[in-house]
Amino acid sequence: MAKKITIYTTNTCAYCGMVKKYLGNKGHEFEEINIDQQPHRQQEALEISGALTVPVTVVTREDDSQSVIVGWNLSQLAPALG
Fold it and tell me: What percent of the chain has pLDDT over 90?
């Protein structure tokens, strides 16, 4: 079960909205880090994911293990939340 969910987003990212809507519909709370509003955190997202794209969703589980999902990838996101 997810202990903490963090999503790195931008203002113009359609997939970011899809991830946020999916999580909301499933009843998951999450922290959103908008890198347009907090550009100093862009490097953080890059280091976590290795990708220059958003959304980057980080799911931290109860045992502190993490899953990092880049983009709108339901086949990775859904099991990570389990």
Answer: 95
